[in-house]
Structure formats: structure tokens, C-alpha cells
Amino acid sequence: MAFSKDLLSGLIFAAFGLAGIAMGWSFDPGTAREMGSGYFPRLLSWGILALGLVITARGLAATHGDKIEALHLRPFAFMIAGIVLFGLLLERAGLVISLLVLFGFAGAACYDSRWKEVVISGLLLTVFAVLVFIYGLELPMPMWPV
Prior knowledge:
The protein has helices at 5-23, 39-61, 73-109, 115-136. By secondary structure, it is mainly alpha-helical. The termini are far apart. Keywords: Membrane, Transmembrane, Transmembrane helix. The chain crosses the membrane at residues 7-27, 39-61, 73-89, 95-111, 118-137.
């Protein structure tokens, strides 16, 4: 047995599934006809657990597979920083600025990203998000700094 990516990712999925089941246990699941507040979270958590167990079994059965590489902290740090900054900036800087900061950090997280592509895709996705969330769903969030 090799400690492969499948084994590790399967264990992570299974852990998230178990955590979801444990956290949602106090919610009323109801029935399929009259779903309670815990129906979908519990169903989703069981699905994630099942997926994790299948992937873990594949990882255990594999005689060879993709080995786990060294942990690269740069992508992880930039993605977490971008998400945290998005959350902190949204109320004060608005959706447009917050998303552009998020996409900038996401582009910096990737080792082989091209800044021209990051800028163009960030602008297009920001326009899409504004159309969907501000105009389509009419969510009460500022589009620009207040």
C-alpha cells in the first residue's frame, strides 16, 4: 500500500462528511415529502462521507499511484488571504473592489498564471457577479465603496 493522493483526499472527504453529520444531528430532518431544516445537510453529508469512503478504498487498493508532493504554502496562503480580504472589504469597498482583490490574490496563488489572463478573467467574472447578485437577485450589498 502506498500513501497516495487518493487515500489522503478520501480521508479528508470522509472527515468532512462525518463532521457535517455530527454538526447537523440536532436539526430535524423531516421526511422526503416534508423536508426539515436538517434534511439536505444530512443527505449531503452522508453523500460526502460515502464518496470519501469510496476514494479511500481506491487509495488503499492501489499498488501505485500519485504520490503526495511537498506542501506548497504560497497557493494556500494567497487563496486564504484573498478570501479573508474579500470578506473584510465587501461592506466597505463594495462588491467590485472586493472581487478584483480576490481575483488578484487568486492569480498570485498560481505559479504559472499570466497577469493579462488574470485581469481579463477577473473583470469578466466581476461584471457577471454584479449582474447576477446586484441586478438579478437584488442582494443588499454595495457595488462601490461607501
